[in-house]
Amino acid sequence: MGIRESHTFSAWKWLGFVSAVWVQTISGNNYTFSNYSDAIKTLMNLTQLQLNNLSVAKDVGKAFGLLAGLASDRLPTPVILLIGAIEGLIGYGAQWLVVSQKIHPLPYWQMCIFMCLGGNSTTWMNTAVLVTCIRNFRRNRGPVSGILKGYVGLSTAIFTDLCSALFSDDPARFLVMLAVIPFAVCLVAILFLREIPQSTSVAAEKEEARYFAIFNIVAVVVAVYLLTYDLIGSTNQVFSLVFAVILLILLASPLAVPIYAFVKSWRLVGFEADMERQQPLLKEETTSPPAETKEIITEVAAAASADDATVLVEKTKPVIGEEHTIMEAMQTWDFWVLFTSFLCGVGTGMAVINNMAQIGLALGHADVSIFISLTSIWGFFGRIISGSVSEYFLKKAGTPRPLWNAASQILMAVGLLLMALALPGCLYIGSIVVGMCYGVRLAVTVPVASELFGLKYYGLLYNILILNLPIGSFLFSGLLAGYLYDAQATPTPGGGNTCVGAHCYGLVFIIMAMASLIGFGLDVLLAIRTKNIYTQIFNSRKPKKSLAASNGQ
């Protein structure tokens, strides 16, 4: 492969990553239910349990993400994106028709189906994006996961703030955004997102690190910008319009990376021509490798032949850190420890996110949009910081990634207990803590799964882990929060109910804090069991760095 072709591939890879960032920016619509749940509850005269079960139906859509996982190894990325885009258009479009009162409220079971379609749409988008980008950037899985999952976290704040700025928090218009914008963005990503041949050079790895630093900086600027807007809370129409325009410019700014990469590849045309003129001399010099090299190659080939013979005699199960089929992964203790700890983390987080509207009202806050945005923005910080920090300590000291999940579980328990006490300002702090810890859990688990069980069947493996979202939503939101809230609530005329006071969710928060502590114990256990794997990953990268240093001398 010529120098120019190599850099052109790199430019296309970064263009695909930018389009992946845009897809993630709009694929967090599953976390926006609180923005329009009160309108649905009022129009359909639902109890809190019925409303929570609608939310569970939305999350059950993620269970069908197994289909996206199976398809990821059989269908091209553009087809997977298109399926997700169409599903989202139908699912959220039907909800818009109901909330805008264009049609009469649908029967409850039909609303569950459309909720499920909307929830399932994001699994196709996330699978296409994560599988493709993790494979394109195999040596930087932490930053890739942190950045992409970070933008998922930001998407709730982006949708919420744009709707607040342009449409005064109108739930019907909010649903139009959820239906149309993801569809349009996915159509754009279809053109650019695909797997690109890998470059394993030291220079390419350093270039990736520099570019990821730029993506991190842009993402942090977007998050701070959104947080500033939330704190200012201006209702001036001109100010809101300016905010929306600047936000769109910030979201488009990562395009500078692939543009720079394309310009860099064009500048290398002349350099490559000079290299081609010197090619015969280079061929003469490299045609006959040194005797030592031949000896090493012979020894490696002999060792490989011996290994192959051993495999033919007896096929052994893969060990942790090697490529696993789904059945092989599910036969290990490590998979179920990871699965259960993930359930404790995301289940409790989903319960808070799905019930934020009612939690805010119970604690005396009529407008909960600020808490939804805080959860989203700090969820972003949790994802992007944990992705980069876990990668840094893995490369520097071989620190097992599950330790970061353990730390997030302890902090999550503290945040839940703080909200159970219902002290002044507790919901502000609780929203920040829960959002950040939920973000850490999502960002760190993605590379952990690929490091323990391999990338060959990663699409399906990822979607099996994501089953914890509907399971956790059902257990902690649908059952626990729904039943305990209704037990404390007062019926309202015309159907439905309401509850005001710390007692509405106090016991819910305490039980979820206990679940978080269980998750902490499981994460510590997984970190101990996988310590050797992360030591091997750490050691495997040291020779490459030493070789690069010796070549530079």
UniProtKB/TrEMBL annotation:
Can you cite an annotated GO cellular component? membrane
On whether Signal is a keyword of this UniProt record, the answer is: yes
For this protein, the record's SUPFAM superfamilies field holds: MFS general substrate transporter
| Keywords recorded for this protein, A-Z | Membrane, Signal, Transmembrane, Transmembrane helix
Membrane topology annotation: Multi-pass membrane protein
Q: Any signal peptide, and if so, which residues? A: 1-28
- Gene3D superfamilies attached to this UniProt entry: MFS general substrate transporter like domains
Alphabetized InterPro entries for the sequence:
MFS_trans_sf, NFD4_C, Nodulin-like
Q: Which residues form the NFD4 C-terminal domain?
A: 322-534
* Residues annotated as domain Nodulin-like: 13-259
Protein name (record): Protein NUCLEAR FUSION DEFECTIVE 4
Give the species this sequence originates from: Gossypium hirsutum
